[in-house]
Design a protein that fits this description.
It comes from Lentzea kristufekii. Keywords: Membrane, Transmembrane, Transmembrane helix. This is ABC transporter permease. This protein is an all-alpha fold. It is built from nine helices and no strands. Helix 2 runs antiparallel to helix 3, helix 2 packs parallel to helix 5 and helix 6 packs parallel to helix 9.
Length: 252
């Protein structure tokens, strides 16, 4: 039998490297989100409109400096929109149309399917935050640079936490149910979950939305480290949601 030296034929068939597969999968997930008109409305247009409204209109009471407080809260909303609502809906419909089942039969490991979605969500969130930050600067926001490391950390932590919650919802229910529930939960978190409004009810501070908004406000407005309480709430929600999602997520 004739054998050939490695590298004789180009391209060489076989599974690609894990970093390369992760990069391609994350890029694909991010591009699919950015090309979806409904997702753009949810992740870009609505947060931008709310940022301008909350910054310029005094109908909703908000701590001073008003633009800084509004920016922190809309940062939180942007993370919730992409990592939770967008991911849950996308996962639900990927399951309906058999996308996950086909991807699981490819060379992509199961963990990389999840990691690629999370990395794709991080890319979308980073673009959202950049666009919102530029808009806030034009509205008069003065960002204390001492808070930059904390803001980056909270963006990553918030994306992971709400991404786990999105996988939990989108991986266990029917696509049409996921579509309805994800949008209802997004609206409830916006109005009474401690994002747009500061609701004076004790249990609200135990919600991941209120914890993220509060932690971001500390870093965005004052440039200081977030409190241990909000960070602990985010970590707890993320760990529990991730553990439950690994048991309940179905491919179809």
């Amino acid at each position: 039998m004739t054998t050939f030296a490695p590298g004789t034929f180009t391209p060489s068939p076989g599974r690609g490297s894990l970093p390369r597969m992760l990069f391609v999968h994350a890029r694909t997930e991010a591009m699919l989100t950015l090309r979806n008109g409904e997702q753009i409305l949810l992740t870009v247009i609505i947060p931008l409109a709310l940022l301008v409204a909350l910054s310029l209109m005094s109908v909703i009471p908000m701590p001073e400096p008003r633009v800084g407080s509004a920016t922190a809260r809309i940062f939180a909303l942007a993370i919730i929109s992409s990592a939770f609502t967008g991911q849950a809906i996308a996962l639900g419909f990927d399951r309906r149309y058999g996308v996950l089942k086909r991807l699981s039969a490819s060379a992509l490991p199961r963990w990389l399917l999840v990691a690629g979605r999370v990395c794709g969500a991080l890319v979308v969130v980073a673009l959202q935050i950049a666009l919102l930050a530029v808009t806030a600067l034009f509205l008069g926001w003065r960002f204390p640079l001492s808070g930059l490391p904390w803001v980056v950390l909270l963006i990553v932590l918030g994306t992971l936490t709400f991404g786990a919650l999105g996988v939990l919802l989108g991986g266990s229910l029917r696509a049409d149910v996921v579509l309805a529930l994800a949008n209802i939960i997004w609206f409830v978190l916006l109005m009474v979950g401690g994002v747009a409004l500061s609701v004076p009810v004790g249990f609200v501070h135990l919600l991941p939305s209120a914890a993220l908004a509060q932690a971001l406000e500390t870093s965005v407005v004052h440039g200081t480290a977030p409190g241990v309480g909000p960070v602990a709430v985010l970590v707890a929600w993320g760990v529990v949601a991730g553990a439950v999602a690994t048991r309940t997520t179905r491919l179809t």
